[in-house]
Amino acid sequence: MTSEGLADGPETYTVTVVDSYDLLSALAADAVSETLANRPGAALTLPTGDTPLGMYRELVRRIDAGELDFSQAQFFCLDDYLGSTPDDEASLTRWLKQVFLDPARLPEANVHYVPTAAADPQAAAAGYDREIAACGGLELAVVGLGPNGHIGFNEPGSGPDDPTRVVDLQPATRAQSAAYWDGKADIPAQAMTIGLGTILQAKRIVLIVSGAGKAEIVQKSLEGPETTEVPGSFLRRAGSRLEVILDQGAASKLSPRQ
Ligand code: GLP
Question: Which pTM was predicted?
Answer without folding.
Answer: 0.95
